[in-house]
Amino acid sequence: MIATEQQNLTAEIAELAGRHGRDRGALMPILQALQERHHQISEFAMQEVAALLDVHPVEVYSVVTFYAFLKAGKEGKFVIRLCRTISCDMREKDKVARQMENELGISFGQTTADGMFTLEWANCLGMCDQGPAMLVNDQVFTAVTFEKVHDVLEGCRRSFSVHPAPKGGH
Amino acid sequence: MNSHVINVKTRGPILFGGVTAGEGLKKALAMSRSEIISEVRASGLKGRGGAGFPTGVKWNLAAAALGQRKFVVCNADEGEPGTFKDRVLLSDYADLVFEGMTIAGLAIGARQGIVYLRGEYRYLLAPLEANLARRREEGLLGSAILGRQGFDFDVEIRLGSGAYVCGEETALIESLEGHRGEPRNRPPFPVDTGYLGQPTIVNNVETLALAASVLAKGAEWFKAIGTDKSTGSKLFSVSGDCQSPGVYEFPMGITIAQLLKVVGGEEAKAVQVGGASGHCVPAKQFERTLAFEDIPTGGSIIVFGPGRDMLKVARNFMEFFVEESCGQCTPCRYGNVALLEGVEMIEKGRCSMTHLNELKALGETMQISSKCGLGQSSSNAFLSIVTHFENEILGRPVPA
Ligand SMILES: Cc1cc2nc3c(=O)[nH]c(=O)nc-3n(C[C@H](O)[C@H](O)[C@H](O)COP(=O)(O)O)c2cc1C
Ligand code: SF4
Ligand code: FES
User: Fold this and answer.
1) Model's pTM, two decimal places?
2) What ranges in A77-125 are assigned the alpha helix state H?
3) pLDDT single digits (tens) B25-46
4) Across the interface, do B162 and A69 touch by the CB < 8 Å criterion?
5) Interface confidence: ipTM more than 0.90
6) What domain range includes position A56?
7) Which of A54, A79, A92, A123 should one mutate to test binding to chain B, selecting the residue with the greatest count of B CBs within 10 A?
8) Among the three residues B247, B269, B304, which one is the final residue of a domain in this structure?
């Protein structure tokens, strides 16, 4: 990571600690915000958070690794979580899963090479009456069909190309 | 943008009808703390999160406990497979839930409430925050609530991050305090030593909404519904093989057969009551009742039609627990893996009766020796399925 990026992250974490507090109870909200913005909680970020909250970095690491929605490694911009629990299973979530893998060219637990999508399993999402259910980041989709898989992925891709990155940069 | 619909099928007398938000709080403000707690006790209301602890008793313990600060925590972690009624309450009846928290705060002398909302429900965060902002404007939260000097109470929403075990009340508190969601030994109970070491009541979303209703309409009205030992009504989250899955409000004490008739699931060969940690009830027991004195439940009802392979069901539940065990204690950490391996042996047609009996004994050991409710109940589904469907699952054809 280049120096300015590190400085930016340090400043951002200080700002988050300013908002959520510097006691241990602020740890989860800070980590959740970092995960949302950066799609990961890097080792450097963990060290910075630990320093600000005055806890050992290993403590932060152990929290990050405990929770399914916090990740040390980089995730895609869109994290797709398909429910694999019983009611969705009975509504043929396996077929949707295969379709998803085919559309994205990756398996569960992987991220596409362009860093756009991560595909994961989730446990019950609380939509059991309308399965198969999945989350795409914070949004929930129910009664997912083959067509819906395609539409949702297209929707994600479109939402990201609305503001194309300026050309000619590095 | 969200594509989900709210699937409410039966609007029963208590939560889904009759009570308007505001009634309960106004009545509570005219009462003393001990009168509020007495009313909740007299209603016989028991916790809707699964364990069924009497709510009035819990509030009384927290009210009597000594602490510099006290907290009211609303458990909105709703992670039990097959449960989604709290989502419906938080979507459509949030005022009733917040009102229940406020009344609880008044009763125990707490100034701060916290909703622990599962990360999977993050899409509810913005509407809930908007609701809280409106309540503050209306003087229903903040300082001197509804003009009562000295009664200050506010609510903060905190998110979970995808861990089922954080629904367990002490793991939830650990998570709020910025730790791994590993359950603590109990006692001490949260009513003495809870969030930040202070007296804390942890109540389920539905319990809090019902408490507001009890204050609005009175204990007698509430007690007239349900059974002697299980008063009031209950929300059921119904999914699986039936015509009309969704959320239903029924009086406590309804039989499984009656419920199946309403939801269009009479063909069922079994029903999973209470989610992955609950019990699988075979058709011959459908006259049993859904009540604390018979089959207690947090309200998850998963219907299995005649064609369902019950071993697959057992496998799905065991995979769930292997994934969600926090790993802190041995019976749960190893036991769930061993039971899943047992399911795999049965699938391959390679499980002897002797080995099956060993697995059953292991399941029973887990029930008595695990540290928290997760490990104490994770073998329930396996045990009830292998007991009631022994003929179906043993002696399966060996896969080629
Ligand atoms: C593994 C596990 C998960 C739990 N998940 C929840 C949950 O999601 N929601 C809930 O209200 N209670 C849950 N509970 C029960 C809580 O520990 C606690 O008993 C409950 O929140 C108390 O509220 P009540 O008295 O209003 O039911 C869970 C318990 C265990 C052991
Ligand atoms: S029973 Fe399971 S979930 Fe509970 S403390 Fe032990 S290992 Fe953790
Ligand atoms: S089983 Fe998939 S949402 Fe509950």
Assistant:
1) 0.96
2) 86-90, 93-104
3) 999 999 999 999 999 999 999 9
4) yes
5) yes
6) 3-66
7) A123
8) B304
